[in-house]
Design a protein that fits this description.
The chain is mostly helical. It has 20 helices and no strands. The longest helix has 54 residues.
Length: 485
Amino acid sequence: MSNRTALGRSTTFVAAGQAAVKSTQLVVALLLVRLLSVDAWNQVAFVLSIHLAIVTFGALGLQHGLLFFVARNPQHARPLVLRTAGITLGVGLAVSGVLWLIADAIGRSLSVASVIPTIGLAAAFELCTVGLPSALIALQRFRIAAAWDIVNSLVVVSLVGLAAAGSGTVEAVVGALAAAAIVRLVAFAALTMALPRQIPYAATTTISAREQLIYSLPLGLTLAANVINRTIDKWYIAAFEPSQLGRYTIAAQEIPLLAVLPYAGGAVIATEMARAFGRSDTATASTLWLNQTRSMTRLVVPMTMALILTAPELLRLLVGASSPIMVLTFQLFTAITLHRVAEYGLLLRVAGRPGAVLSSALVLLGANMVLALVGVLIAGPAGAAAGTLTANALAWIFVLHRISQALGTSLRHSFPWREWAAAVAVSALAALAAGRIATLVHTTAGALVVKATCFATLVIVTTHLGRLKAFVRRPSVEEATWPSS
C-alpha cells in the first residue's frame, strides 16, 4: 500500500469517528424533540446543558495534551492515560458533589433537582475516558480510535432513544446517559490495558503530572473560550432580537462534516509532526503541514461554496422556510468554513505551544464579542453573522502568524495561499454560473439538483483543465537541460 493510500485511509477512519461524535448531540436532540413532550424536552435540554458543560470544562484540556505526550513517548501511553483518567474523574466527582449541594436551587424551576446528581455522576464517568481516543491517534491506531467514537455514539443514541420512546421522562433519559457512561467506562478499562507499558509504572512516568497540567490547562481554557465564542452571537440575538432567535439558531450553524475533515487530516499527521518538532526539524514539519493543508483545501473549499450556493433550497427543504435574512445568515456563517482547511491549533499543540492556542482563541473571542455586537445593532441577525465572519478572518491571520513562528518561516510561507485562492476563485465562478443556470428551473428540488450538478461539473472540469495545462507547460527533460544559445 502506498503512503498516500495509507494516509487517505487513516484520514477516513479519523473523520468517521469525529463525524460520529459531532453528530451525536444533533441526532439525540432530534430524537428527543420527536419523542418527548414539550415539558419533558425542556427538562432534558436543561440537564443535557449541564452534562455538556461538565464534560467540556472538566477535561481541563488533558485529552489534547495526550496527543503531544504520547506521540513523543509511546511507551508511556498506558500510565499517561490512567493518570489523565484519575485527574478527570476526580474533577468530575468534585463537580458532582457541588451539584448535589445546589441541585434544589438550580433544578427547582424545572423540577429536575432529583436527577442533577445523577447527571453529574454520568458526566464524571465519561470524563474518565476522554483521553483514550487521543492516545490511540497518537499511537496511530486510527481504526480503533474511529471504532471507539462510532460505537460509543451508537450506544448513547440507542439507549437515550429507547428511554425516550419508553417512559419518556427526564429520569429515564438521565438513567440512559448514566448507563451509556458505564458501558463506556468498561470498554475504556479493557482498551487501556492493551496500551503500551514496557516498564513498571513508577519508572515509566517520567512526565510529571505538573508538566502535563501546565501543558494542558491552556488548552482547557481554549475549549472554554471556544464554547463561549460559539454562543456569544446567539446571546446578542436573544438580547436585542429575541423574536429572531429560533431562526437564527438554525441558520447560524457550521456543517459538522466540514469541520471534521481538517481535524481528521491533521490528526493523521500529528504524530509525525510532533516527532519532527521534537528533533527541531521544522522543514519536515512544514512540508507535512503544507501538503495536508493543500489536500484539505481541494475538498473543503468547493464543498463550502456548494453549501453557500444551495442555501435557499436546503433551508426551504429542511426547515420549510427560507427568508432572505435567514438565507444570508446561513451563507455568511457557512463562509467561515472557507478557512477551515486545517486544524490550526493541532500544529501549535504538537509544536509544544499551547499558550499560542489559547491566545488565538482569546483573539477570536474578543473580536467576536465586539464585531458581532456591532453587527447585530446595525443589521440584526445578518449583521451578527457578518461580525462573526469578520472576527474569524482576523483570528485566522493571527493564528497563522503564530504558526509561522512555530515553523520558523514567514506568514507568506506558512499557508498554501496560491492553492487556496485558486480554489476559492474557481468555486466562486462555478457557483455564479450554476446559480444562473438554475434560474431556468422553478421547483425547489429541481433547482437544488441543477445547482449541485452544474457546480460539481464545472469545478471538476476546471480543476482538471488546470492540471492538464500545467502538465502541458511543464518543460521536457531536454528543454530543461539544453543550454541556451
